[in-house]
Every structure is written in structure tokens, then in C-alpha cells.
From TrEMBL, chain A:
<keyword id="KW-0813">Transport</keyword>
<keyword id="KW-1133">Transmembrane helix</keyword>
<keyword id="KW-0029">Amino-acid transport</keyword>
<feature type="transmembrane region" description="Helical">
    <location>
        <begin position="234"/>
        <end position="255"/>
    </location>
</feature>
<dbReference type="GO" id="GO:0006865">
    <property type="term" value="P:amino acid transport"/>
</dbReference>
<protein>
    <submittedName>
        <fullName>LIV-I protein H</fullName>
    </submittedName>
</protein>
<feature type="transmembrane region" description="Helical">
    <location>
        <begin position="42"/>
        <end position="61"/>
    </location>
</feature>
<feature type="transmembrane region" description="Helical">
    <location>
        <begin position="95"/>
        <end position="114"/>
    </location>
</feature>
<dbReference type="InterPro" id="IPR001851">
    <property type="entry name" value="ABC_transp_permease"/>
</dbReference>
UniProtKB/TrEMBL annotation, chain B:
<keyword id="KW-0472">Membrane</keyword>
<feature type="transmembrane region" description="Helical">
    <location>
        <begin position="12"/>
        <end position="29"/>
    </location>
</feature>
<feature type="transmembrane region" description="Helical">
    <location>
        <begin position="97"/>
        <end position="116"/>
    </location>
</feature>
<dbReference type="InterPro" id="IPR043428">
    <property type="entry name" value="LivM-like"/>
</dbReference>
<keyword id="KW-1133">Transmembrane helix</keyword>
<feature type="transmembrane region" description="Helical">
    <location>
        <begin position="350"/>
        <end position="371"/>
    </location>
</feature>
<dbReference type="GO" id="GO:0005886">
    <property type="term" value="C:plasma membrane"/>
</dbReference>
<protein>
    <submittedName>
        <fullName>Leucine/isoleucine/valine transporter permease subunit</fullName>
    </submittedName>
</protein>
<keyword id="KW-1003">Cell membrane</keyword>
């Protein structure tokens, strides 16, 4: 029983990453009708926003402390981060400690801008072209973005720790009288994902802007005929989708040290998630994300692995193939979207 | 000739000449000159040109003719390689046993994968093929280790059966005694030309499959595939079922990929799972698009282009750049080198990505279309000069 709950928890935190990326992907697809292969690269850029912020906060100057000596007997050079000298040592130290959560604020404007530039600069010109062309050009863009990141940050993963207060483990089973120990940060990640997903849904459901966007997803031309500049709103939605993927990346850095090809690794899986959930369906993406995450972690249990060897490696693809063949629209896909 | 029309015959002859004289054509610079690093006439690279050429020709039969974009063709490449290495392990190093088996196994897998994947089209087809390829890749790495040797890669060990191995037989891949790795070097003045057995073997195979692809393109079957691409609904309305045709195209292109994988293992008796990764499938997509989708010669050009520049660009470093731009004033020289630096050496993929995007955006027909446009432009310029001179004599309306 404990093991089962632990696997569900494991699945939830992987599933939240899938769900967040897939949400952005399907948002772009549902609004603009573009298949965006560069979405994984956006996830990666988000992760590197966190890396950059923690590097900036760690920028420091050297002073010579005459009271201390190093092992050669010379006066010791002490490195003091600028933030510590500006805000005092305690606030400075905690700023550095909380670099990853702080990066959320730092990354939102960056990701919005990245999304806006991408849409206006490149993807705008591909609305009228075939899906194959869209896949190809965004695939090229993904290569370019990841090579740029590689140029500036190198090819090795960069460790970016979570704040000390959130880096331990907690006994989450205590509430139910069970003994389940789980890393705190992964619980934080799941809650964060839940908040973001709720925010996106309520934004679309309860604001006028969201209403117009939903109307545009249903029938773009009619909304245009009503005198609403739907293109502009869709561009903003692209920015929001980029921000969602970026935030997923920011918060993922402590779980998995970011490297330049993490985006590609996630992209393939999130595409499978989107297709399973149904192209253009937001609830479908979230549902499929969590479902596949949990299935994957169940499949990696030893009991199941000994039953069907190798199932943990292929479970997601097997599910995707079965669903695509039996329910071509995906779990919650709308009728008439991408059906040939 | 051989059932080809005049235009195709001349194309075929040009390709035959290019491949047969490649060791000369690709080696235009003397050995000791500063430009020698641009020579591509060494066996390893030339073999890769033709092998990836075969891979791309096959991919083009599916994508170029039917428009189905597969992101999983690398799986067949890996399957082909594994089959050939297994034949080395069980029989002996003669490639004649392995290659037909590679084509056959790749074909069987292609029937299975294609039968399932082709039930969907468009993006769903791409995702399905991608899923199958990733599945094969993951399995090859983990559970199938007894067959694929996992991360180490499959290779021949001393205690393998090799039942047909004779006493004096070569211990590297060969074709009835013609050892693939052996080369004949010809020195002419300052030039050195290398004629490699393996290259010529691959080149002959490529010419054969290139001829086959011309025949497929020009056949009624090829016409049906084009019909699938242009409008599948209309094809169904005329009472024809498109699926057998697309499946046949998928299987043929899978067999091409298997053959390419088998040839890779014939040049170097190794097979690794990383050949099946989806980035490898992406590479063949890049080659085909860059060269020109749906054209005969395009994929071969694209494969050669990418492999050549991959090798050359990744070899250039800052010292070489400084040599080139040494005629510039010092400050300017450093600035130019600084600007070019991210695009060379390890940054070659950045150049490739940008180039690929530019091609997709501005030149959807790839290098072939670029060539045609330049050709037309030259022609029309010649014509417009004529018409200009003509216009002066004609009265204006």
C-alpha cells in the first residue's frame, strides 16, 4: 500500500511537468493551429532563467581578509556576493538560497517576451503553410535555441539547488497514519503545477479576454467579423503558453540539473501527451499528463517490471499507440480538430 | 536506356560519373596546401556520403511522394546494422549474408510498424512513427540487451561461433575476399587520391538503388503515391484504396533504411542503439528537405551537403580563422573571428539549424529548387535583355 502511494506521488511530479508543457503545446495548437516543436526548447529556456538568476545573485567580489590565512600562509581572499554587501549578509544569503523560487518572477516577463518574439518573428508566417512545414521550421528553431544555450552555458548539466528550507524530505504519510517519506521540493512542484493549471483555466473561463480567446478557438472567422482583433489576442496566448512552459522549467531545475538537451527529451513525451489527450483540448492535456506520469511510475515498480520486462521504458508509447488507434481524437479531443 | 527516358538517362549518367570519380572530385587541393582540410576524398567521409544518400533516397520515396512525414526511420537503420553484425557473429565477415538479411528484417519491421501507423495521417502519423522508434530505441538499450548488447553496442568477439570462417579469411568485413577497409592510394604530383574498396562497394549499391528510385518515381505506382499526396479523399472517391500504396511506399523506404544501416555495419563492424534515436530520424528529415523533397537527386545532395559541412565546419578552429583573415587590420580580424566563432567547431549544429530554418522558410524546394531558380534567373536575364532591346523597337500600346 505504501509503495503504491509512493508511486502515485512519483507519478504526480513527473506528470505535472508533462501536464504543464502539454498544456502550453495544446494551447498554441488550439488557438493558432500551429504544431510547435520548439516548445521543449522554451521549457529549457525557462530552466536556464533560473540558472542565470542564481548565477547573477552569486556574482561576487574579492576582498583580502588580513585576519585569516589560507594554507600557504598568505592572507585569505574572501568572496562576498554583491547582494550580501547591498542588503546585508542575512538577507543576501537568503536571496541566494531562494534563487529558484525568485526566478519565477524574473522569468515571467522573459518568457512572455520570448513567446511574443517567436510568434511575431517566425510562426506568424507559417499559419497558411502545411503542418509538416510548421513542424520542420520549429524543429529547426529548437535546434538553434538549444545550440545557443549550449554556447553560453556549456554542455554539462548545471546544478541549481532548491532553498534549504524546501530541500529535505517530509513524511507525507503521517496524515494517514502511514510512513511515506518524500522530497519536499517535489511536493512543492506538484502544488505549483496545480496552481498554474488552475490559473490558466480560470483565466480562460472567467475573464472577458479568456472568453474571447475561447470563442476564437471555436470559430476564428466569426470572432474576427465581430470586429475583434483575434490575432493580437492569440499572440498574447502564445506568450502565456511560453510562460507556462518556462515556469515549468524554472521549478524543475532542482529536480533535474538543466542541460541543453533537456527540452528535446521532454518534447517527445509531451507531444505524446498532447496527442493522447486530444489535440487542442486543455483538460485532455492535463489529464493525459498526469495519467501517463502515474502509469510510467507504476510501470517502473519492480513487481511489474519482473512481470513484463522493459515495460517501464515503453509504457507511454504503448498507451499512445493504443489510444491513437482506438480513439483517434484522443481522450478529450473536440470533434473536427485535426481529423483526417 | 534501361527503361529510362532521355532526361533520366542523362541524370543517371551524371550521378554515375560523379560517384565513380568522387575520389578525384572531392580532392581538389594538394596534400600539403593550406586548403587540404577542405578535401573530402578520404574513405570514411565518402562512405558516409553514399550511405546517408541511400538512407535519404529511401526516406524521400515515402515523404517526397506520399507526403507522410515519418519521424521514426532511424529504427530501421539500427535494425539493419544489428542484422549485419549478427551475421558476422554467426557466420563470418562476408557482407553478402548480412545485407540481404538487413533489408529483409527492416522490411518485416516496416510492414508491422507501417500497418499500424498508416491508419492515421498528418501529425498523428509522425507521432506514431516517433513512438515506435523511441520504443525500439528504449528496448534496444534495456531489455533486449542479449540481442543488442545494450550501451556497449553489438560487436564481434573472439568466442563467437563464426561457423563459415575459413583459415585465411580476413577478420574485417569483406565481400568474397575484397576487404572493405583496404584502399589503393595514387600519388599524382602534390595530390594524393584514395580509392577505397568499401566506398566503391557502397557507391555501386547506391547507384543500383538510385536507379530503382528513378523507376519507382516514373512508374504508375509512383504516380499513385503522388496522388495520395495531392488529395487522398479524391483518390478514395474514385474507388481506390490508398492504404496498400502508402504501406508499400513505407516498406520500401524502410528497406532502404535497413540497407543503409547494413552498409554502415559493413564499413565498421559495430552497431549501437544510438543509431535508432529520434535525433537520427530528424537528421534524415533535414537531409531530404535541405536537398529538395520529392526530387530525384535532392536527397543525395542534401546528405552529401550535411555530411560534408558537418566534417569541415567542425574541423575549423580559431587559429585557422585567424590565418584566413590575417589580411584584415588586427582589431577587425579579432572582431570577425569573434563573430564567426560560435558557428564553427562544436557550434556546427547552430549553423545547420539556422541553414535548415532558412531553407524551410525561403526555399521549400531545397537546394534543387535553389539551383533551378538560379538557372531560371540567368535564363530570364538573358531573355529580358533581348526583350528590352525588342521593346525599344516596338511601339508602345
Amino acid at each position: 500500500m505504501d509503495a503504491l502511494i509512493l508511486q502515485i506521488l512519483n507519478g504526480l511530479d513527473k506528470g505535472s511537468a508533462y501536464a504543464l508543457i502539454a498544456l502550453g503545446l495544446t494551447l498554441i495548437f488550439g488557438t493558432l493551429g500551429v504544431v510547435n516543436f520548439a516548445h521543449g526548447a522554451i521549457f529549457m529556456i525557462g530552466a536556464f532563467c533560473a540558472v542565470t538568476l542564481s548565477k547573477i545573485l552569486n556574482l561576487s567580489y574579492e576582498t583580502i581578509d588580513p585576519n585569516q590565512t589560507d594554507f600557504l600562509g598568505n592572507p585569505l581572499k574572501v568572496k562576498t556576493p554583491y547582494v550580501e554587501s547591498w542588503f546585508g549578509p542575512e538577507i543576501g544569503a537568503s536571496l541566494i538560497d531562494w534563487a529558484v523560487p525568485l526566478a519565477i518572477i524574473f522569468s515571467i516577463p522573459i518568457m512572455l517576451a520570448v513567446g511574443y518574439i517567436m510568434e511575431r518573428g517566425l510562426i506568424k508566417h507559417f499559419y497558411k503553410r502545411e503542418h509538416a512545414d510548421q513542424i520542420l521550421v520549429t524543429f529547426g528553431l529548437a535546434i538553434v535555441l538549444q545550440e545557443i544555450i549550449k554556447y553560453f552555458y556549456g554542455a554539462n548539466p548545471i546544478q541549481t539547488p532548491s532553498p534549504d528550507a524546501l530541500s529535505g524530505v517530509a513524511n507525507v504519510g503521517a496524515v494517514f497514519g502511514m510512513d511515506i517519506v518524500y522530497p519536499v521540493w517535489r511536493i512543492v512542484y506538484f502544488c505549483f503545477a496545480a496552481v498554474i493549471i488552475a490559473a490558466v483555466f480560470s483565466f480562460l473561463q472567467f475573464t472577458t479576454f479568456g472568453m474571447v480567446v475561447r470563442a476564437g478557438m471555436a470559430d476564428r472567422e466569426t470572432v474576427g467579423l465581430l470586429g475583434i482583433d483575434i490575432d493580437r489576442r492569440f499572440t498574447i496566448m502564445f506568450g502565456i503558453a511560453a510562460a507556462v512552459a518556462g515556469l515549468a522549467g524554472v521549478m524543475y531545475t532542482p529536480i533535474n540539473s538543466p542541460n541543453y538537451h533537456m527540452g528535446m527529451d521532454f518534447l517527445v513525451l509531451s507531444f505524446v501527451v498532447v496527442v493522447v489527450g486530444g489535440m487542442g483540448s486543455l483538460p485532455g492535456a492535463v489529464l493525459a499528463g498526469f495519467m501517463l506520469g502515474i502509469l510510467e511510475s507504476f510501470a517502473s515498480m519492480n513487481a511489474i517490471k519482473s512481470l513484463i520486462p522493459g515495460i517501464d521504458q515503453i509504457i507511454i508509447y504503448v498507451v499512445a499507440i493504443i489510444i491513437l488507434l482506438t480513439r483517434p481524437r484522443g481522450l478529450m479531443g473536440r470533434k473536427g480538430v485535426m481529423e483526417e | 536506356m534501361l527503361g529510362l527516358n532521355k532526361k533520366d538517362t542523362s541524370l543517371m549518367i551524371v550521378v554515375i560519373i560523379l560517384t565513380m570519380f568522387a575520389p578525384f572530385i572531392l580532392n581538389p587541393f594538394p596534400v600539403d596546401s593550406a586548403m587540404a582540410q577542405f578535401n573530402a576524398g578520404y574513405p570514411d567521409l565518402m562512405q558516409r556520403f553514399v550511405i546517408f544518400g541511400i538512407f535519404a533516397i529511401g526516406f524521400n520515396i515515402l515523404f517526397g511522394l506520399t507526403g507522410y512525414l515519418s519521424f521514426g526511420h532511424a529504427a530501421f537503420l539500427g535494425i539493419g546494422s544489428y542484422s549485419v553484425v549478427w551475421m558476422y557473429k554467426l557466420l563470418d565477415y562476408n557482407v553478402i549474408y548480412g545485407l540481404p538479411l538487413a533489408v529483409l528484417t527492416a522490411g518485416i519491421f516496416a510492414v508491422a510498424i507501417g500497418y499500424v501507423s498508416l491508419r492515421r495521417s498528418g501529425i498523428y502519423f509522425s507521432i506514431l512513427t516517433l513512438a515506435f522508434a523511441q520504443m525500439s530505441f528504449n528496448l534496444a538499450y534495456s531489455v533486449l540487451t542479449p540481442i543488442t548488447n545494450g550501451e556497449t553496442g553489438l560487436q564481434v568477439y573472439n568466442n563467437d561461433p563464426q561457423v563459415l570462417l575459413g583459415a585465411n579469411e580476413a577478420t574485417s568485413p569483406h565481400l568474397f575476399g575484397i576487404v572493405m577497409n583496404n584502399s589503393f592510394k595514387l600519388d599524382v604530383g602534390a595530390w594524393q587520391f584514395t580509392f577505397n574498396n568499401g566506398y566503391y562497394f557502397c557507391a555501386l549499391v547506391m547507384l543500383l538503388v538510385f536507379y530503382l528510385s528513378i523507376r519507382i518515381f516514373r512508374s504508375p505506382f509512383g504516380l499513385m503515391l503522388r496522388a495520395v499526396k495531392s488529395n487522398q479523399n479524391r483518390l478514395s472517391y474514385t474507388g481506390l484504396n490508398p492504404r496498400p500504396y502508402t504501406l508499400a511506399a513505407f516498406v520500401i523506404s524502410g528497406m532502404y533504411a535497413g540497407l543503409a544501416g547494413g552498409l554502415m555495419a559493413s564499413m565498421d563492424p559495430l552497431a549501437g542503439a544510438e543509431r535508432m534515436q529520434w535525433t537520427a530520424s530528424g537528421e534524415v528529415v533535414l537531409m531530404t528537405i535541405l536537398g529538395g523533397t520529392g526530387t530525384l537527386i535532392g536527397p543525395v545532395l542534401g546528405a552529401g551537403f550535411i555530411k560534408y559541412f558537418e566534417n569541415i565546419f567542425s574541423k575549423i578552429n580559431d587559429t585557422i580563422l585567424h590565418q584566413w583573415f590575417s589580411f584584415l587590420p588586427d582589431g577587425l580580424e579579432d572582431a570577425v573571428v569573434f563573430i564567426i566563432h560560435p558557428f564553427i567547431g562544436k557550434g556546427w549544429h547552430l549553423t545547420l539549424g539556422i541553414l535548415f530554418m532558412l531553407v524551410v522558410i525561403f526555399l521549400p524546394g531545397g537546394l534543387v529548387e535553389g539551383g533551378q531558380r538560379i538557372g531560371k534567373w540567368i535564363k530570364s536575364r538573358g531573355k529580358s535583355e533581348d526583350s528590352d532591346s525588342g521593346a525599344t523597337t516596338e511601339p508602345a500600346e
